[in-house]
Amino acid sequence: MEILNNSGSALLVLGCPQVPVQTTSVLYIAAKLKKAGIKTVVAGTPAARLLIKYADFDGHYIDEIKDLDFIIDAIIEKGEKYPLCFVFIHNDAGVSYAATMDSIMKSVLYPVIFGSDADELSTQITFECEKISVPATHNPKPLINEINKVIKWDA
User: Fold this and answer.
1) Cα–Cα distance, 118 to 113 (Å, whole number)
2) Which helix (H) or strand (E) holds 67?
3) How high is the pLDDT of residue 3?
4) Pfam family of this protein, just one (predicted)?
5) What is the pLDDT of residue 152?
6) Is the pLDDT of residue 63 over 80?
7) Contact status, residue 2 vs residue 152, Cβ threshold 8 Å
8) What is the CATH class of 9-150?
9) How do beta strands 39-44 and 64-67 pair?
10) CA gap 100, 146 in Å, rounded
11) pTM for this model (two decimals)
């Protein structure tokens, strides 16, 4: 799917950062989005936010880092909009976050599913979307390759 269509901003939703490929994949997607002129906002748990904050401490790739509950409230109560949403999933909680984002947003949503249970978690995503799914845990290259198969970065 072509995503570089004046999308404006993208929300990257992060759960617990137990699997090492999450942070690398987030920064990779954010860098690609930023290069395309798309504002990047990360919403996550406290630990996930800190990993991103210190990995991109000068804000080269991430424009804003926000609390996940704050973002959900801002979308529901204040009508905050993000035309693109990536939800990073490595456990059941991530599937729940993806379902929540699908139900409250009118966005193009990409579940980015990784970790040893990626295949099983992928089957739990029942709403319509294009999934990015690889059972990667430490080596980010297979996940990056799958991201590049699904996302068309160049117009």
Assistant:
1) 6
2) strand 64-67
3) 53
4) DUF1890
5) 85
6) yes
7) yes
8) alpha beta
9) parallel
10) 24
11) 0.94
